[in-house]
Amino acid sequence: MVNSKIRKPDWLRKKIEYTPQRHRVKEILRELNLNTVCEEARCPNLSECFLRKRATFLILGNKCTRACRFCSIAKAMKGEILAVDPEEPKRVAEAIKKLGLKYVVITSVTRDDLDDGGALHFAKTISAIREIDKYINIEVLTPDFKGEKESLNLVIEAKPDVFNHNVETIPRLYREVRPQADFERSLSVLKYVKTNSSTIFVKSGFMVGLGEKRDEVLDLLNRLSETGCDAVTIGQYLQPTAKNIAVKEYIKPEIFDFYKNEALKMGFKYIASGPFVRSSYMAHEGFNALKNVI
């Protein structure tokens, strides 16, 4: 249920704009039968990103095999057969070419029904993008692939520029917020990628406003830093539908600044922390910052 006891503050009010650019992006996506997490997850930054002809591509379908309580992406029914479209990587590459993108974020639903969790499909998508322009920078935002090293290796060997895997929230809230995930497994994914590639930046992100305490957030940041994670994003959880878990608190902008400063002290090379920050929002800026640090 919606938490009616707390009112959305002024700093979380964002104007929705219906521009020709937004229409053109949606037109290209529909023509090529592609999904975006921007639409499926009801991202508050959709208008702004589509205005700039940017989108985060959602591969492997639009139904998830897990049921995280914060997410509005459709859930697969038990026993439902979910297809994998072998032509999707090429269509993603075609959309990128039409949009003129030079930095791309590719994410997916979680596909626990697949032996490799969809890792090979990620690799094929990266390859298809490289075929149209080898200079395009690619960030992948992946599920945990159940922690399987063989799956992670498939993505690592495809050489994305950034490997992103979100921990989403503090460990204490996993059972309530994302019961089918495992915090330690997510940390192991980040550490494995960092340990096994010297050329890929590793990134993670999480939400606040779900009932976490400040010291728990600092502990989470510290745990992420211990994996060797290069970058982290922190954003306000916003309840996408009445069926999703309610917001417990709207975090003030100055607290986001506090978390950013503390994260910098821990050694992260890049931190984006603010109410509207999302993993892939303005992701190219984070990549450019990371390159300048090296």
How many individual helices? 11
Write down the CATH topology.
Answer: TIM Barrel
Q: Find the structural class using helix and strand composition.
A: alpha/beta
Q: How widely separated are the two ends?
A: 46 Å
Strand order of the largest sheet: 1-2-5-6-7-8-9-10
How many strand elements?
10
Low-confidence stretches: none
The oligomerization state is single chain
Tally of domains:
1
Q: From the alpha-carbon coordinates, what is the Rg to the nearest angstrom? A: 18 Å
What is the CATH superfamily label?
A: Aldolase class I
Sheet of most strands: 8 strands, mixed
State the share of residues found in helices, binned by percent: 25-40%
Return the CATH architecture: Alpha-Beta Barrel
Overview in brief:
This protein has 294 residues and is α/β, with parallel strands linked by helices.
Walkthrough of the structure:
α9 links the parallel β8 (about 200-210) and β9 (about 230-235). The protein has one domain (about 15-294): Aldolase class I (TIM Barrel), CATH 3.20.20.70. The chain is built from 11 helices and 10 strands. It is α/β, with parallel strands linked by helices and about 290 residues long. It is globular, with a radius of gyration of 18 Å. α4 (about 90-100) crosses α5 (about 120-130) and α6 (about 150-155) packs across α8 (about 185-195).
